[in-house]
Amino acid sequence: MVLADPLQRSHEQFQVRVEDYRSFRRDGFLHIRGLVAPEEVADLAAFTDDMMAGRRSIPGVPAPPASATEAERRRFYERIHMPHRACEIAERFLLHPRIVDVLEALIGPDILALQTMLFFKQPGQAGQGFHQDSYYIPTQPDTLIGAWLAIDAADEDNGCLWMTPGSQHEPIFPDCDGVTQQGDTVLSDIESIKDASHPDEQVNTLARIALAYGNEVKIQAEPGDVIFFGGHIFHRSHQNTAQRSRRAFVSHYCNARSRVPWNHGIPYEGAAANQEHILARGTTHLPYAQPRFGTPCAANAPDLYGERFDDPRAKSMMGDDNGFMVLVPHEDVEHDH
Predict the structure, then answer these.
(1) Which positions ≥6 away from 60 have C-beta within 8 Å?
(2) Rounded to whole angstroms, how far apart are CA atoms 185 and 280?
(3) Residue 115 and residue 260: Cα distance in Å, rounded?
């Protein structure tokens, strides 16, 4: 669907600093505080409250039974995969312009929106052990990036994210379970791991590699903060041992010029599934999907979020004289190196 009426950007554009870009490349993640407005995060929190109370639901996702106690309702959900394909609010946050502003600077300027997860993580609910996201969502070339939006305040007690700076330079370790096919297998000396994502460090053998870094850091976040992290970095979270929730909305993206042979286990036509994923920003020579609920993005509002100026020259995200990442056209071809 292409929107008929001219649109205006409804959010102030977020400008990523060159220092932020360097930080992301150095550490493998970037924590942007207060990126999403409090009233918007409150909408998402209210939506999850309504789901747990049985007042709202997502098509295709079971709801708690009417006879459930309040405690049972709060523990009914753990995580919901791909809600953006059935729910307007999830699509809205997947394509949130300020989140995509940051993505544009880090891996853009062309961004394909792939996946969403809504985490509830109520008291007592489990975390997830060491893993690498590109193991689960392959992109070719590998440009995967996650955006973790805090709905509640997240700290060590209620199960915040933990990152291992520098591990973004590691290859994707293949699993020796013989079931999953992801992982770098062309490296002659790469070792296979077992039980990625398992919370027990003795069971999840990726933990041995991750813990050898000795520099794991906890990422404490406030509602509206967004943590961006590359697909190779080792990361995990622990069980929620507090008496408060740690809800989060997590999305994944890649550069829109990467092929994506992934569709969350759903069959697709051809060698890749780009046609199932939404063009959030910029342009691409590959197919893409339209947003099902009409959220403005490059797919349905190309004049606003697509090619931003009429110039046939190649363009890259570069630092400007004020220290911000901006889209800059290259000079004449004969001067490119």
Answers:
(1) 86
(2) 31
(3) 12
Residue type, 71: A
Q: Taking a C-beta distance cutoff of 8 angstroms, is the pair 61, 54 a contact?
A: no
58: helix, strand or coil: coil
Within 13 Å and on the Cβ side, how many CA atoms surround 161? 29
Angle subtended by helix axes 97-107 and 18-27, to nearest 10: 70
Contact 63, 259 (CB under 8 A): no
Tens digit of pLDDT for each residue in 164-209? 999 999 999 988 765 556 777 678 788 889 999 999 999 999 999 9
**DSSP assignment of 166-228, as one string?**
TGGGSPPPPBTTSS---S--SSTTPPPB--TT-S-TTT-THHHHHHTT---EEE-B-TT-EEE
pLDDT digits (tens, 9 = 90+) for 11-32: 889 999 999 999 999 999 999 9
CATH code of 18-38+75-335, in short, is 2.60.120.620
DSSP 334: G
The C-alpha atoms of residue 279 and residue 264 are separated, in whole angstroms, by: 17
